[in-house]
Amino acid sequence: MKPVKVGILGLGTVGGGTVNVLKRNAAEIARRAGREIIVTRASSRDLGKPRICSTEGIAVTADPYDVINDPEIDIVLELIGGAGPVKDMVLAAIANGKHVVTANKSLIALHGNEIFAKASEKGVIVAFEAAVAGGIPIIKAIREGLSGNQIQWLAGIINGTGNFILTEMREKGRDFADVLAEAQALGYAEADPTFDVEGIDAAHKLTILASIAFGIPLQFEKVYTEGITKITRLDVDYAEKLGYRIKHLGIARKTGEGIELRVHPTLIPERRLIANVNGVMNAVLVKGDAVGPTLYYGAGAGADPTASAVVADVVDVTRALTSDPENRVPHLAFQPEAIKDIPILAPDRFKSAYYLRLNAEDKPGVLADVTKILADHRISIEAIIQKEPPANEKAVPIILLTQVTLEKEMNDAIAKIEALPTVTGQVCRIRLETLG
Amino acid sequence: MKPVKVGILGLGTVGGGTVNVLKRNAAEIARRAGREIIVTRASSRDLGKPRICSTEGIAVTADPYDVINDPEIDIVLELIGGAGPVKDMVLAAIANGKHVVTANKSLIALHGNEIFAKASEKGVIVAFEAAVAGGIPIIKAIREGLSGNQIQWLAGIINGTGNFILTEMREKGRDFADVLAEAQALGYAEADPTFDVEGIDAAHKLTILASIAFGIPLQFEKVYTEGITKITRLDVDYAEKLGYRIKHLGIARKTGEGIELRVHPTLIPERRLIANVNGVMNAVLVKGDAVGPTLYYGAGAGADPTASAVVADVVDVTRALTSDPENRVPHLAFQPEAIKDIPILAPDRFKSAYYLRLNAEDKPGVLADVTKILADHRISIEAIIQKEPPANEKAVPIILLTQVTLEKEMNDAIAKIEALPTVTGQVCRIRLETLG
Questions:
Q1: Of A212, A312, A430, which has the smallest distance from its Cβ to B246's Cβ?
Q2: CA atoms of B105 and B141, how far apart (whole Å)
Q3: Which residues in chain B have Cβ-Cβ distances shorter than 8 Å to A325?
Q4: Which pLDDT tens digit goes with each residue over A83-95?
Q5: Which domains does chain A have, with CATH numbers?
Q6: Which of A40, A134, B177, B195 is deepest in the core (most CB within 10 A)?
């Protein structure tokens, strides 16, 4: 089947990241989509600017309409962002019969109703997974994964900059202004951070989430929005003492009288998973009447995470374009003929760190024997705890944490440790994964 | 458009839950799917057994083949579970040209390769979201939401019974056998809990996750599986002292040499979100090369959560059956003509609990004045902290947590509190949500 041809508007962070992901993972993506996906043309405001991606094989132009009007292109990716002339570009692409993928939350929140109506008239798809919570597939989860539910409410940490600031204030006792300056230096916050810290960016995203959760029109102008600029270290500390964390949440809740749409700083009990989402990470908690609470967590911004969502939308469009039985979402994610028989490793070839607990006689030299056996098998020790022997017992528990080792080495070492005359019973072993 | 007709095999927990959700949320589901979805026929082994659902309007039969061979039925839901005769039923439904939705993890893990091949031959869909992690849309997230990524590894708490046991052991210092007996009494664990505590159930689910993550055939027989029966309170305590939690994880990791597939008890640093997934809840952490780590959390079992996934699959099939432009996944989740203009509430009609911080003169009666104002507005106080005044200052900070109240009442009360001669400056207010 012939490749799907993609044109990109904007080669900045998101556009460049998307080019990189589409190239780096081209083989894996074609195995999933059933067709090759190639970028043939892109527009960029400043042709001389250094980029994060190679543009080899891509015709780069200064005029977005060169992309929009290219008859060869099947899908236009709008990755410029912001409001303004972008709306006209998207409408022009739709009028040309192109499918559109966008990462633009303000465009969808402010003009989505009009854009979707035009797309329906022309029979094209407009996909916008990347517009909310970056790489987290939250649009898909709510729109498709929870489609059997009445959504009761949702609450999200949907602005990474704000969450970074609140996390630093809590963990390091820093002041708002100080952390904001750092966030700007790190490139998390824009030179004008108003959209982030005053909750406008979060309100754009909440507008979209509320619409797909409840089946209501997009209506950004009705979101109550309060920023985090007035939160002091004092409040962060008091909240902590009371057992709470302060998070900048977007909340949409269906009540008997209507729908609450609000973005504001919020105390949350510290035992909730979402209270422990820190730094620039995003998370959305969704409460459905059937499924109960579900949470979706991941990176809410950045070149590659946002590209992850953009490319997923491109794959969705590609699968839909050819939705005969062989080209629907394949059962095992990859096309049947693309399933590969990669070897499954035997357990003794696994690599893992270990927790070991053994009982040994309380006399000199035992620990030396054990550590020598581990060293002989090139197993490094991360920590050792030797406990006092319990009353009336001669055996003392020794607990060891090791660094990552080959399971075969560990098996051999444990057999030798268990054979030591000073060690009684079996070694209890539990694998340890940092999941970092 | 005429309704989609569904036949159900099995009216136990999952089947009964599915009937309930399809009926309770019929209007919402039709708004999303673009067609009515109705259950016309169902089979049940024991026709006299009490059920969790009403069977009004459903022809109930003892023979599953009455459902499978009914020419009116578009989609067959296999909700019997287990291996054995169920495989033949699913193959018969496929041979009859029915689309199939199943919640059966062992069926897919053991016979999925064969079933999917037959489904492709017949051009029908076999959907199995409910087979892994109950209501969490994890199949969809990996198969569609992360389709731009090379998945590097995934790790999941995918057996609720095992997680309940480990959570109780840690939080309450209980013994394995004791908690297992309770889990059986509560109905979390089967009379024969081998599949849960020995990791076989988790291995079935890991088989499926690994296949869709890496594009490899389903191969349950190659999963290394170790149960939690040997974990003692001692190990749980030592792990905690070292800064770790013990979780029963299913791990699939792609290495240069091959793929590790393993289910075993695992120490995880306590700061990781997944280490804080407690009780019967499930979570899957997926690491993609573009998106980085993402986590999906929710109920892994139960009538309604599992039904949530089954119904989502039914909606997916329904949308695919009629995938002309108007019947694809709609932009705003609900069909354009089903978008409703539910009122968005003005902020003074929001309901929320509050954290309040105010500065007051350190003299008797101030607190009484404040609490009287709150009482006059029917605002109940949950907690009060009065701090010592800082050195050289007369004002003392007072922190209050209130119960849920109408925002209008809070606005009025705060205006009155700020007008008190003994209170200086503005009241700092932050909303508090338990998100329970």
A1: A430
A2: 17
A3: 120, 123-125
A4: 889 999 999 999 9
A5: 4-134+304-338 (3.40.50.720), 138-301 (3.30.360.10), 347-432 (3.30.70.260)
A6: A134
